[in-house]
Amino acid sequence: MSKVNTVSSKEPLFHMIKRDDISLPKAWAIRLIAVLLSLIVCAVVIVAITHQNPLEVYAGIISGAVGTKRRIWVTVRETLLLLLVAIGLTPAFRMRFWNIGAEGQILVGGIASAALMIAFGNILPGWLLLILILIASMIAGMIWGLIPAIFKATLNTNETLFTLMLNYVAMQLVTFCIVYWEKPAGSNTVGIINGDTRAGWFPAMFGSDYGLSVILVLTVTILVHIYMSYSKHGYEIAVVGESQNTARYAGISVTGVIIRTMMISGAICGLAGAVVVSGASHTISTSTAGGRGFTAIIVAWMSKFHPAAMVIVSLFLVFMQQGAIQIASQFGLNENASDIITGILLFFLIGCEFFIRYKLEFRKKKQEKEVDA
Fold it and tell me: Which of 65, 82, 236, 343 gives a 20 to 30 Å CA spacing to 58?
């Protein structure tokens, strides 16, 4: 005698499966969809807050980013700064050393630049002062990157917490310096450094004050790409990032690679401090880094550490940030409105990376199985 039992297994409606591979066009199509969805959500938020036509608001975003020649150059300047910091983080992240301390490295680079501008602005020739500023800012950032690298390489400390805490130490150093450099006295600000002589300022090139910044950032971007892709050191960074044990077996000095790579990463971020202080703001404060050290992490990860992609992602984020600032003032919104719009964009852009790595697979209709007892 046989008994027919119906076996049914309850499965979820869908589950996530890691993709084996995904084509480049498909990956960018997912990112494009994420951008479009973020713009739709932003439009809903805009209507809810301003009761304005979203198209008019988006026109304001475009105007805020590229509406005038000055706004175009500001967008270019901010893009360059964000790109430079992202390029600086790339070697460390490729090695899987989570350098969250770019903010601090920018600040100490800015301190070095401001110190030279104040101390030698009326003594040294402009060209020599500028060279010293670039070198000193890189050395300062290098030292700030070297500290956590030594502790990581020798004591295996947590580099994420270490570099993050150094950001706050750098902020306190800036505050300490402001006490001695404040101008006018009692203002608790440094003010514009060498505003009358422009000593230590980046010279105007190509009809803009930011021409030299363009040359520096593009040069560093190309050099880092060559270094990471075609040099022995770049290969060693990749191997250490994949497996430290494999690197040791291959005869690579993991300690040396960690220290060397973080010195490079810190130096580039320190250079960004010089680009900010000498090339843009001409002052120093605790907000000199402006959150770029954290935003650059998003740029580097979304771009898969590819320089060309970093340019595109940096430009898009800065474009939307500058536009969001414009509509906040144009439509009488408070300063947090632009942060909300920027946050929505980042939410979708970061979230889409999950769907690039994973895909949804829905439950297939299963036939009931009969089992003889």
Answer: 82
